[in-house]
Design a protein that fits this description.
two-stranded antiparallel ribbon, 215 residues, 38% helix, Rossmann fold, eight-stranded mixed beta sheet
């Protein structure tokens, strides 16, 4: 399968590398087709890895991963192009974290809206599924880093898209417990876990943890 990873940060590298390891063809997209971080990733991951602009990666991928910085996601996706994303699943990993006032960051979007909802409104012909935004990027692709069962969430309006993303989470990334929170509006809850997550990182002294819903 051809997959597009939008973003060259730690999440993009972790997701892209795992997808290549699973035998998929992956293009990493950024603002420039010669981005140095993307070039280093391609060099490290061999012939199934390639790079291009956001638009190149969006056109290339049958399924897309938004690994851009949340505050820049809408601009990056506009560069990717609505036509290139039309009818495709976009797995949104981003969080709208605002670092302008220092640490800890605040959420630029919360309570009555979410970044995922903004993306879905801006690109109504794209099937946005929010997932993997509530954990460290290493854990995203290797849940066994934390002992026992723990949860990853999905939110989205399209049931078939969520089902496909759930298959990817289970079969490619190794997740055993996938919790469907509901429509794209439920992404507000997932994104609003970030202030708690950041405080837990400070309290525990590690980002190597996750949440488990017990009932």
């Amino acid at each position: 399968m051809k997959l597009g990873v939008l973003g060259t940060g730690m999440a993009g590298h972790a997701i892209g590398t795992k997808l290549v390891q699973m035998g998929q063809d992956v293009m990493m997209g950024s603002r420039s087709s010669t981005n140095e971080k993307a070039a280093a990733w391609v060099k490290a991951n061999g012939p199934k890895a390639s790079q291009g602009t956001f638009a190149d990666a969006a056109k290339f991928g049958e399924i897309l991963f938004n690994c851009t910085h949340g505050m820049a996601s809408l601009d990056a996706l506009k560069l990717a192009g609505a036509e290139n994303m039309k009818g495709k699943i976009l797995i949104d990993l981003a969080n709208p974290l605002d670092f302008s006032k220092g640490m800890p960051p605040t959420l630029a979007v919360s309570n009555t809206d979410s970044l995922a909802e903004q993306i879905q409104r801006a690109f109504p012909d794209t099937k946005v599924v929010k997932s993997l935004n509530t954990m460290n990027c290493k854990l995203m692709v290797n849940p066994s880093l934390v002992r026992g069962d723990h949860d990853v969430f999905v939110s989205g309006n399209d049931k078939a898209a969520k089902s496909r993303v759930t298959e990817i989470l289970r079969n490619w990334f190794g997740w055993k417990s996938v919790v469907d929170l509901g429509d794209i509006g439920s992404a507000r809850g997932a994104e609003q876990l970030l202030p708690l997550w950041l405080r837990l990182v400070g309290a525990l002294g590690t980002a190597n943890f996750n949440l488990k819903i017990v009932k």
